[in-house]
Automatic annotation (TrEMBL), chain A:
Assigned keywords, A-Z: Transferase
The keyword Transferase is annotated on this UniProt entry: yes
Gene3D superfamilies xrefs: Glutaconate Coenzyme A-transferase
Similarity section: Belongs to the 3-oxoacid CoA-transferase subunit B family.
Name recorded for this polypeptide: 3-oxoadipate CoA-transferase
GO molecular function: CoA-transferase activity
Keyword set includes Ribonucleoprotein: no
Residue ranges that the Swiss-Prot or TrEMBL entry lists as coiled coil: none
Pfam annotation, one family: CoA_trans
Automatic annotation (TrEMBL), chain B:
Record carries keyword Transferase: yes
Organism domain of life: Bacteria
Name of this chain's protein: 3-oxoadipate CoA-transferase
NCBIfam families: pcaI_scoA_fam
Keywords: Transferase
One Pfam family from the record: CoA_trans
Family indicated by similarity: Belongs to the 3-oxoacid CoA-transferase subunit A family.
GO molecular function: CoA-transferase activity
Entry keyword Transferase: yes
């Protein structure tokens, strides 16, 4: 399925009334599919609760941006706060869900999404490690395979870690996985069978 | 000490070669562009800059980097589509990078401003950021020891100030301003408007005047 369809599925799984942080890139699209009556409040790490939608440049107020520095709107009931408060909110366990992209997720929930480890790469971490350490639930939205066909759900990450044992769900274009103490459960598939998944992934899978 | 209302060039005149300067802003939101322009004109170099990003486009912090005044960047997210001046300096080996997770950057400055010696933080446990660092298990959870980040100077942008130096901010341009204001020996705030004492609602003040040494009015 495409990014939009995946975003719609993730949006539907976010509990009503949750406080949620959507990472930059693909997870930002989830906001479009949150139902207005769900009571979900979006947190943006640069210091706001009650963030609205991304707006085009001609409507921009450049004092009002999301974590990806795109101009956004403020919803009724919004609140602003400084950076130390914004990250205290995460670390203090007040944020219900965050959704981030990933290079790799390990079966045990380790997350790698900030650095490829390539010697010529300029690393940038932003708030990813803080979110991984702080949010009650860390969900990942990604393609299951790289462009070369290598799995991104792996026994252990080869890229530098963002956080250890933090990911609870992995939403991908072909399957959704729940990670927990009993292992990796496949809860949904799209265009791929459970058997095909067990062949292509080097991770023990449990059929839901 | 009484807050001084002045112009950008006078405000930054004591910044010395080798100083650590905290620069407010998340991207360009809250970036004190005119104070940085004054710093470029003033000429201090070999600076350590603490800021969330490493310059966007060609103005503000990006211009300071382009002018070759920055020896070291302490930041969380240097690499962006429009961070070409930092990228060039980094690849040329003329600028050093200390990468700090965003929340640690904020909390380490908060600690400096609040007189905290160091603190245990769960962010980055098990990652390369924590390698070789002191850790401690508290109530079954592992934490990394984090030290304060202090500035010689903080350059921040707020929205409105009164003549005492009380500050209010505007929307997400608040970001690092209130924390940086507490963490530097000399805090210089650029604001769009300065009003008389008594005109700001005391309940709405975000940065109390005690943290602000100099004020510069730059119409938005």
């Amino acid at each position: 399925m495409n990014t939009e369809d995946l975003a719609r599925i993730i949006a539907a799984d976010i509990p009503a009334g949750a406080y949620v942080n959507l990472g930059i890139g693909q997870p930002t699209t989830i906001a479009r599919y949150l139902k207005p009556d769900s009571g979900v409040t979006l947190h943006t790490e640069n210091g706001m609760l009650g963030m609205g939608e991304v707006v085009p440049a001609e409507e921009a107020d450049w004092d009002l941006t999301n974590a990806g520095k795109q101009p956004v709107t403020e919803l009724p009931g919004a609140a602003y706060f400084h950076h130390a408060d914004s990250f205290a909110m995460m670390r203090g366990g007040h944020l219900d869900v965050c959704v981030m992209g990933a290079f790799q997720v390990a079966a045990g929930g380790d997350l790698a999404n900030w650095h490829t480890g390539a010697p010529d790469a300029i690393p940038a971490v932003g708030g990813a490690m803080d979110l991984a350490a702080g949010a009650k639930e860390v969900w990942v939205m990604m393609t299951l395979f790289t462009k070369k066909g290598e799995p991104k759900l792996v026994p252990s990450c080869t890229y530098p870690l963002t956080g250890k044992a933090c990911v609870t769900r992995v939403y991908t274009d072909v399957a959704t996985f729940h990670l927990g103490p009993s292992g990796v459960r496949v809860v949904a598939t799209d265009g791929i069978t459970f058997d095909q998944l067990t062949t292509r992934l080097d991770v023990p899978l449990i059929q839901a | 000490m009484k807050t001084e209302v002045t112009d950008p060039v006078t405000a930054v005149k004591e910044i010395k070669d080798g100083d650590t300067v905290l620069v407010g802003g998340f991207g360009m939101a809250g970036m004190p562009v005119e104070l940085i322009d004054a710093l470029i004109e003033h000429g201090a170099g070999d600076l350590t800059i603490v800021s969330n990003n490493a310059g966007n486009g060609d103005t503000g912090l990006a211009a300071l980097i382009a002018a070759g005044r920055v020896r070291k960047m302490v930041c969380s997210f240097p690499r962006q589509a429009d961070s070409w001046h930092f990228d060039a300096a980094y690849r040329a080996g003329t600028i050093e990078l200390e990468l700090v997770p965003q929340g640690n950057l904020a909390e380490r400055m908060r600690a400096a401003g609040a007189g905290i010696g160091a603190f245990y933080c769960p962010t980055g446990v098990g990652t390369p950021i924590a390698e070789g660092r002191e850790t401690r298990v508290i109530d079954g959870r592992e934490y990394v020891l984090e030290h304060p980040i202090r500035g010689d100077v903080a350059l921040i942008r707020a929205h409105v100030a009164d003549r005492l130096g009380n500050l209010v901010y505007r929307k997400t341009a608040r970001n690092f301003g209130p924390v940086m204001a507490t963490a530097a020996t000399l805090t210089i705030a650029q604001v769009s408007r300065i009003v008389e004492v008594g005109e700001l609602d005391p309940e709405a003040v975000v940065t109390p005047s005690i943290y602000v040494n100099r004020l510069v009015e730059v119409a938005a």
